[in-house]
Structures are given as structure tokens and as C-alpha cells.
Amino acid sequence: MKILAKTISYLFNPFILPTWGFLALFNAGYYFSMLSWEIKRFVLIAVFFSTGLLPLLTLSILALSPRFNIRMNDSSHRVKPLFFSALYYYLGFYLLRDIALYPVFRVFLISSVVLIVLLLIISFKWKISIHMAGMGGVTGMILAVSYKMGINPVFLIAGTFLAAGLVGTARIYLGRHTPGQVLWGYFTGLAILYLSVLYS
């Protein structure tokens, strides 16, 4: 069970969640599925580079310091990674700013900056779940896009809720978070991304 819980945490960690979210949109029968492969490839590369690769490299560099705990058991250890992640997400927004796309791509990234800054502020005092904030953000984006476009991708939405439940259970089982930290993380991410995309 512990190996399974760790596997779930790794598969849906905050470094890869945005990329999973965009892949889901590209293959869900939305308007996005009609985009050319060249545009999809550029978006995925920009998103993975700014939300996955750069934050992961920064975390690896921070881990070289003996004063930094890479497990980030203390909420204060999350401040630097979150600060740099906010900068990198804004870089992703900047890279996509001139592409003639449905605005959800740019809105997702810039509203994620707002979410990360909020998580950073909270992390000074409390260890809110970043994994679940990411899951909530992806869920909020998918729900808002579905509502705005008048479609109902049942399997995608159900799969997103199932994944969120698995991740939350895994984080609690591993002792990384309390149920309260998991729920607050999820609904914070969901609320910010849903409202941002819905009213963009």
C-alpha cells in the first residue's frame, strides 16, 4: 500500500499536473482537439518547461544545501520552491501570450501564479497540500471549460475526481498531510482556477 501511495503521489505531483491537464484538454473532444500538432507541441513544451522542468531543477539545486529538507516536512521549507515556481509559471504565461489560442491556456498559467502566491503565504504558517491544490486547479479548469463550451465530458470529469480522491488518500496515508490540509488545498485550487477560467 505504501508503494502504491508513493506511486500515485509521483504520477500526480505538482511538477507534471499542468502537463497532464493540457494533454487531457487536447484529447477530450474540445475545440482544442482540432488544433494542429505544431501548436499542441509548442504549448506542451512551454507548459512542461515552465511548470515542470524549471521548478524541478530549482528544487534539485536547493536540495544541495544541507539546511534544505527536500521532503519539505516543515511548511517554511516550501517558501523558496513556491516563490520560484510562481516566476516560472509567469514565464509560461509570457511564452504563450502571443499565440492565437483559446485563452484558457494563458488564464490557467496566470491564475496558477495567483494560486501559488496564496499557497506561499499560507505556507509561512501552515502546511497546506500543494498536491491537492494542483489537483483542484486542474479540476476547476476542466469544469469551467466544460461549462463555458456547453459540453459534458463525463469520463474526463469522473477521471479527474477519481484521481483527486486517490491523491488525497495517498497523501493522508503517507502521513504527509492531515485531512484538513488535503481538503483545503483541493478546494482552494478548484475555486481559484474555476472562477478565473469561467470569467475570463
Question: Describe it for me?
Answer:
The chain is mainly α. It has one domain. Helix 3 runs antiparallel to helix 4. The termini are far apart. The model has no long low-confidence stretch (mean pLDDT 85).
Structure summarized in a few sentences:
This protein is mostly helical and 200 residues long.
Characteristic key phrases:
single chain; 200 residues; mainly alpha; 8 helices; 72% helix
State the helix count.
8
Low-confidence parts: none
Largest sheet: none
Structural class based on helices, strands and sheet pairing: mainly alpha
| Backbone shape | globular
Portion of residues within helices: over 70%
| Order of SSEs | HHHHHHHH
Question: How much is the average pLDDT?
Answer: 85
Strand content: under 5%
Amino- and carboxy-terminal Cα gap: 41 Å
Question: Can you tell me the number of structural domains?
Answer: 1
**What is the radius of gyration?**
16 Å
Strand runs, count: 0
Summarize the SSE layout with pairings.
Layout: H1 2-11, H2 17-26, H3 37-62, H4 79-95, H5 104-123, H6 130-149, H7 154-173, H8 179-198
Helix pairs in contact: 1-7, 2-3, 2-6, 3-4, 4-5, 5-6, 5-8, 6-7, 6-8, 7-8
